[in-house]
């Protein structure tokens, strides 16, 4: 079996396993939080120990870490929020521009509602007049 097919099968297995586990743990958010927290701490503990074992200095650690975060785009996203990543994946505009569009859309909806309300009021006035004349 070619190498690519084996890798795809392994990745597919773990992808399906992740979906099942996440689906079940989503029903127990506190337990889910503890498991995820433990996984994160153990992961970073491992990274920390590897850095210690290969004698990375503080300056090199900061430089490598910042470089990796800058290249992947996470450095800025961590300071500005996850919404940047989501909007980038969805191909959306910047958050500020999107909010401006949403505000304008709401203003348009409000104007439509006001005009509809005016028509309803006029119709009610007509009905009242018709009832008074009868």
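^ Assign residues to that structure.
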């Amino acid at each position: 079996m070619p190498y690519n097919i084996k890798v795809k099968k392994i990745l597919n297995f773990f992808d399906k396993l992740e979906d099942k586990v996440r689906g079940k743990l989503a029903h127990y958010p506190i337990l889910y939080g503890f498991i995820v927290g433990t996984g994160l701490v153990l992961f970073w503990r491992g990274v920390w120990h590897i850095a210690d074992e290969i004698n990375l200095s503080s300056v090199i650690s900061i430089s490598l870490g910042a470089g990796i975060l800058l290249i992947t785009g996470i450095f800025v996203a961590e300071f500005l929020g996850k919404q940047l990543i989501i909007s980038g994946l969805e191909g959306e505009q910047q958050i500020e521009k999107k909010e401006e569009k949403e505000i304008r859309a709401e203003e348009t909806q409000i104007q439509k509602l006001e005009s509809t309300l005016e028509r309803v009021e006029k119709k009610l006035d007509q009905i009242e007049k018709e009832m008074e004349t009868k």
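The helical segments are 3-25, 29-53, 58-72, 74-80, 83-89, 95-133.
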